[in-house]
Amino acid sequence: MADQRTSGDDPRLTELLTALTRAEGLLRERGDSHWADWLARSRAHVARADPHGLDHLRRAFGGTDSISDAYPPEDGDLGATLAHAYRLVAHLLAEQRRHARS
Question: Any idea where the domains of the chain sit in the sequence?
């Protein structure tokens, strides 16, 4: 079973939650409730250490019509915030997988 940590255990989780809050606000300012709601759901899952929270968030970034397609890293503060969140998710998921194998 994967090691589930709370935001107090890993500063990257706190950083991720902050980035998600920021990105959600920026998306709402742009009128994009679809992606804002997705990030809000992901944030809630991650905040309560739901084992599927990081995977739910990762799915937003892959494939056609992903949040990365709509808001690339070059898209100002929103794009940079999302790119940062994605890097954090990738690192946290990799660590989660390492813990699951050990």
Answer: 11-101
